[in-house]
Write a structure and sequence with these properties.
The structure holds two protein chains of two kinds. Chain A is of the alpha+beta class. The longest helix of chain A is centred in the N-terminal third of the chain and has 23 residues. A six-stranded mixed sheet of chain A has the order 1-3-4-5-6-2, with helices on both faces. Chain A has nine helices and twelve strands. In chain B, helix 3 packs antiparallel against helix 4. The radius of gyration of chain B is 16 Å and the shape is globular. Classes of the chains: A alpha+beta, B alpha+beta. The interface between A and B is large, with 37 and 35 residues.
Chain lengths: ~290, ~160
């Protein structure tokens, strides 16, 4: 039996969507809407027919078309939940909604510094700190992720395009504010991509893809996520924590970034995620990212 | 009345703006009209034939009303959600986004709040988009004289946004 990929299934749903839209708005049929039904489309249509009592060919009025469209919409959600989303992404969605595009003026008064783990890492990327600073100050896009309660919890994501080894390359940087050094911005994460130059147009999009491919599982309040925007974790007792982040073993090469701010009865977790440099670097060398 | 327009007008939800800007390389897929409100035109003006369902001002006010009234059963919002999801599926087919990104977009739509559908008006200078405009072709036009356009790849620098 052929295994149907998520992509193929979504493509079939998309074709059905297009047929419905053509019929509903009486538009001139697109190529997809005119094409012969694929076997997968027929299979999906038969399943919809058993749910709705009618298939696509029997939809004639607006009510029927709307109901069929609703059924497709439900199917998109089902595929997303069952096959596409592997971990909770509410914080990623909040990040998309709260990120604000800013200009380089914002960065002018800050000194840019590297974390210790990134001092070694940038050599693997073939970059120097002066080059990185120059690219940071001439970005394609900068996004501020503000925290209204505390400027220290603000974060900046930016992308910059440049030529490296005669190839178009995108640099992504996550800048965070240090806890005590308000006039310094720390490069928490830096990464390059050769594959999709369009990622330079959206630092948030670059970041989401980065943690999807090279992120780490973080367990907090009983749930395992890839990204924590802001979460308060109550202490069970003075010793027991309600969150756990992976600890590196021998030959591991990753870091977990973000703020872990312990208080008496709880701990604040802010902008935490992991970046597995060990799995990222081979992909970068082979130009798989 | 002089029917030479300087601007095109398009009403879109905030969520639509966000998704297009974040995931579709800043290219916005918009339907637009050469007049903001066809109801205010002279009865002999050809643009008077633009139906209410394509009238940017009417669409804006209707959507705003549903958001302000907290109408969780709004058919306009429901239609917008369906349109956004089917748009994302098309972008996946065209390889503009990958499956994980489709999943994020679908989840965003499913978990959206009413405020995410507050309407925005795009003001689009004609001089910037003349070569991108596509006339909507219909098999059987309800009103054969109605004029509507599609811009499948409106860049962010090609429009201003207003709300009222």
């Amino acid at each position: 039996m052929d295994i149907i990929t998520s992509h193929e299934y979504l493509e079939a749903l998309s074709h059905l969507s297009e047929r419905v839209i053509s019929k509903k708005y009486q538009l001139k049929k697109t190529d997809a809407a005119q094409s012969v039904f694929s076997s997968l489309e027929i299979e999906i249509d038969n399943r919809f027919k058993s749910d709705l009592g009618f298939g696509f060919s029997e939809t004639e009025n607006t009510t029927g078309l709307n109901r069929y469209e609703n059924r497709i919409d439900l199917e998109y959600s089902k595929v997303t939940d069952e096959r596409l989303i592997k971990y909770p992404i509410e914080d990623e969605i909040t990040l998309i909604k709260t990120g604000v595009e800013i200009t380089t003026d914002y960065l002018k008064t800050y000194e840019i510094v590297l974390t210790d783990w990134n001092k070694k890492f940038i050599k693997h990327l073939g970059l120097t700190l002066p080059t990185i600073k120059s690219l940071i100050h001439s970005p394609e896009r900068i996004v501020l992720v503000p925290d209204e309660t505390d400027i220290i919890s603000n974060n900046i994501l930016l992308t910059s395009r440049f030529q490296k080894s005669n190839q178009e390359c995108t640099m992504f940087v996550h800048l965070s504010f240090g806890s005590a050094m308000r006039k310094k911005l720390t490069i928490s994460t830096i990464a390059l991509s050769y594959l999709n130059p369009q990622l330079a147009l959206s630092p948030i999009r670059f970041f989401l893809n980065l943690i999807h491919r090279y992120g780490l599982d973080l367990t907090v309040n009983g749930r395992t996520k890839r990204f924590i925007l802001k979460e308060k974790v109550m202490k069970k007792n003075s010793n027991e924590l309600s969150f756990s982040f992976p600890k590196p073993r021998k030959n591991d090469n990753f870091h977990i970034t973000g703020i872990i701010d312990p208080k008496v009865f709880y701990t604040n977790l802010i902008f935490n995620y992991g970046f597995n440099q060990k799995s990222y670097l081979p992909d970068l060398v082979k130009r798989k990212i | 009345m002089n029917s030479d327009n300087i601007l095109y007008y398009s009403t879109n939800s905030y969520l639509s703006f966000l998704i297009n800007q974040t995931f579709y390389n800043g290219n916005h897929y918009v339907w637009c009209s050469p007049v903001f409100d066809s109801g205010t035109l002279d009865k002999y003006d050809i643009l008077k034939n633009i139906p209410p369902s394509s009238n940017p001002r009417k669409i804006y006010l209707a959507l705003k009303q549903d958001v302000d009234d907290q109408d969780f059963h709004s058919s306009k919002i429901r239609d917008n959600k369906k349109g956004l999801k089917s748009g994302a599926a098309q972008m996946l087919r065209q390889k503009v986004i990958n499956e994980h990104e489709f999943g994020i977009i679908a989840k965003m739509i499913d978990s959206s709040s009413l405020l995410d559908f507050r309407p925005l008006i795009y003001l689009i200078p004609k001089s910037l988009v003349q070569t991108k405009l596509q006339t909507i072709e219909v098999d059987k036009k309800a009103n054969p004289l109605s004029i509507e356009y599609l811009i499948p790849n409106l860049g962010r620098s090609e429009f201003e946004i207003i709300e009222f």
